[in-house]
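Researcher: Good morning. I'm working through a list of sequences from a screen, and I'd like to move beyond sequence-only analysis. For each chain I'm collecting a predicted structure so we can compare shapes side by side. This is the next one on the list. No need for commentary yet; just the structure.
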Amino acid sequence: MAKQRIERLFMLAEQTFSEHPERSNRYVQLARRIGMRHNVRIPREFKRRMCKHCYSYLVPGTSARVRLRKRYVTVTCLTCNKQMRYPYP
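Model: Good morning. Structure tokens for this chain:
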């Protein structure tokens, strides 16, 4: 049940980002709190859509910058300017 709520909150964050980016950031924070409270992991595809430092919702080109390096993808949050790296083969 908690996983369904997390998925729903991320869907709402995606839908409302263009009109209310601060509301979508709040949805991400709520999803994170639900996951922590019920000890449920947030799925990988949703985890990569949130900043690991300020927990804001990331949209490539709007709130995040995505760059490809030799062995990893670098995602830079434009809110807090922190970088996250994800390996790829």
